[in-house]
Structure formats: structure tokens, C-alpha cells
Amino acid sequence: MKAFVVTGPQIFELQEVASPVAGTGEVVVEVNRVGVCGTDVEFFNGTMPYLHDGQAKYPMRIGHEWTGRVIQVGEGVDSKLIDRRFIGDVMLGCGTCKRCQSGRQHTCATRFEVGIRNGWSGALAEQLVVPARFLHEIPDSFDDTIGALVEPGANAWRVADAAQAQPGKNILIWGTGTIGLLTAQFCLAMGANVHMVGKDPVTIKLALEIGVASAGESVIEIAGGYDAVIDATFDNKVPSKLVDLVEPGGRVVLIGVDNNPALLDSRTLVFKDLTVLGILSGSPGLAHSIEFIKSGRIDPRIIVGATVGLGEVGKVFLGTRPVGAGPGPKILVDPKKF
Ligand SMILES: [Zn+2]
Ligand SMILES: [Zn+2]
Q1: Distance between CA atoms of 3 and 122, rounded to whole angstroms?
Q2: Distance from the alpha carbon of residue 154 to the mean position of ligand 2, in angstroms
Q3: Tens-digit pLDDT profile for residues 315-337
Q4: Digit-coded pLDDT (tens) for 257-277
Q5: Cα dist from 110 to 55, 119, 188, 302, whole Å
Q6: Which helix (H) or strand (E) holds 32?
Q7: Mean residue pLDDT across the chain
Q8: Fewer beta carbons below 10 Å: N end or C end of the chain?
Q9: Cβ neighbours for 205, distance < 8 A, ≥ 6 positions apart
Q10: Pair 99, 79: CB distance under 8 Å
């Protein structure tokens, strides 16, 4: 089968590799669609911190926002899974440690992360092997585009949940990329008033189409102030600005990661009585993401700009926007096309 392999910073090959075989407890999935995410871009460019602290190394087979069909089951896995469509958790915890047992398997010390950590091969390939216990089935009503958006949607659901989005709450989201826009969709579905700040006029316009109260290149002052503020940027100057902007007693939710640390004055956190939350992964939000989409509370497809073949993804990583791409920031890949 073919797989997209990153062999060094900005060096890649579409390689012919051995098809995976399902081991005990595992399945082989034929990948129908996979999203390109900021984490993938960081691995491609060599800036991802995991490359520098030993949690990941080249050559890498990246890709983790996948949806596909089970085509093979290993020992101990129900053969009824064959031909059914799934998405999968990125975080593959050991299942036995205290963190895994308490529902925090995404923080397991020895976890694999699909296409990210400890060498687990990713989904930018025709096939993928994953443990069956990390699968989530998707309804027939989901097309492959929706399927590939469940995982980033799960991150966004967690951010919206952490911000306590609900009617009467004013929420500021900084960053109009995929996660910012998806988070806006979930916050709106939960009934909150949403304001956004971004840099790109195209995605700012898209935010307004999604239905946020305001979106622009600078923060606006609103009556009552912001009850929760969200960093969905790659800019280490943003978190401290958000801490200044949030109402006392409010919430600061961080999901963006810059290559350099963002510094916060702990005295401000104390004097403003703030709750600061970091969101690493969508794992605890996957079922919620599926439910919100299934019930029609959100349709995430508006954030997809284009779908390209596996042979074109290298150009996307190098910064070429696919011909005819729409305004959405998210690029999807169809691994069956080259
Ligand atoms: Zn991702
Ligand atoms: Zn564990």
C-alpha cells in the first residue's frame, strides 16, 4: 500500500510500504478520509516539540484525524466489525495505569498517539492499524468529510465545555483556524454569545457566516465583558492578552501551542480569581462530537476548503493552496486518490 512518509524537515516521499496486519485486539482500517492538522504541519516542518524531546522521530508516517472502514480483525476482535465505518481515538493509552483507569487515557505516560507519538504509524496512508477498543462507530448519515472532522470536533467540544458555554455567556475566541471555528460552532450550539479575533480576512468572513456575533482583526469591547476566553492560535503573545481581557472569576481555555512558551503573570490569575484550563486532546470529547453532529446541532463541513489526493498532500504541507479551494481552513485527504 502507499503511505506518505516524512523523512526529515520538509522532506517527504510517497512510499510503497507493507500493508498492516491486525495483531491481537487490533483491526486494520481502510482509510476513507484524513484531515491535515496543525500538528501534522509542525511535524512536517520539524518544529513539533516531540521531535526534540524524543517522543517522536523521523521517518514518520503522520495523520491522525481519520475515518475509515474495518477490513481485517485480529485475534479476540468481533468479526462483525468488518465493513463498518469508524473514527478512532488518537491517544492509545495502556488501559491499566491509574490515569487510563480514571478516564484520562490521553495522558497515559506510555501511550502511543496515532501518527504522532512513540512511532505508531499514522493515517496518511491507504490503511491503518489500531486497537479495536479505541474505535467509535459513526452513523450512516455521516459522509467521509464529516467522519474526518469528528476528532478535531472533539477537541473543540472539550474547549467549549471547558469555557462553560451556555446561554447568557460571552465568549471570546482568538484564532479563526480550524479549531477556533469549530469551537465557535460548539459554543453557538450550546447557546453562548461568541466573538472572534483572527488575522485572515477569509476565515474572519467564514466566522461571520457560521453565526458569531462579531469577528475581526482586533478585540471589541462588549457589555458585561467576556466570561470565558479561548486561545486557538499558534501565537505565544495571545494567552497573556486573554488573561487581561477576561472578566474576574472567568475562565481561560488554552488549546493553541506556539514553538515558544507563553508567559502568564500568576499574580493576575490570583487577583482575578481565574480558572485556566489546558486541552491536550479530543479523547474525552469524541462521543460528544459524534452526538452534536448526529443530532444536527452542528455541521462542521463549512470549515473544509478542499479535499486532495495522497500524492498532492506534500504540496499542501509546503504551503500551496489547492486549486479551487474554498474559504475553509481545513484540507482533507482522500488516500485512495494519488
Ligand atoms: Zn489534529
Ligand atoms: Zn495508561
Answers
A1: 9
A2: 20
A3: 999 999 999 999 999 999 999 99
A4: 888 899 999 999 999 999 999
A5: 10, 12, 36, 36
A6: strand 26-36
A7: 97
A8: C
A9: 215, 327
A10: no
| Percentage of the residues of the chain whose pLDDT score is greater than 90 | 97
Dist CA 20 CA 79 (whole Å): 17
Q: Are 62 and 116 in contact, with CB atoms under 8 Å apart?
A: yes
Question: Can you say how many angstroms the Cα of residue 145 is from the centroid of all Cα atoms in its chain?
Answer: 14
Question: What is the amino acid identity at position 17?
Answer: V
Q: Cα dist. 231→39, 59, 136, 196 in Å?
A: 16, 31, 28, 10
Q: State the distance from the centre of ligand 2 to the C-alpha of 51, rounded, in angstroms.
A: 22
Q: Cα separation of 2 and 123, whole Å?
A: 11
Q: What is the whole-number distance in angstroms between the Cα of residue 105 and the centre of ligand 2?
A: 6
Q: How far does the centroid of ligand 1 lie from the alpha carbon of residue 222, in Å?
A: 32
Which ligand is in closest contact with the Cα of 62? 1
Nearest-ligand number for the alpha carbon of 92: 2
Question: Structure pTM?
Answer: 0.96
Helix (H, G, I), strand (E, B) or coil at 253: strand
Domains and CATH numbers, the chain: 2-137+299-334 (3.90.180.10), 156-278 (3.40.50.720)
**In the block, residue with C-alpha cell 474572519:** 204
Residue 247, number of CB atoms within 10 A of its CB: 16
Residue type, 126: E
User: Does 133 score more than 90 pLDDT?
Assistant: yes
Dist. CA 323 → ligand 1 center (Å): 23
Report the separation in Å between the CA atom of 65 and the middle of ligand 1, taken as the mean of its atom positions. Answer: 6
Q: Which ligand minimizes its atom distance to the CA of 182? A: 1
Cα(16) to centroid(ligand 1), Å: 24
C-alpha 231/C-alpha 241 separation (Å) is 10
Task: Say how many Å lie between the CA of residue 151 and the centre of ligand 1.
Answer: 7
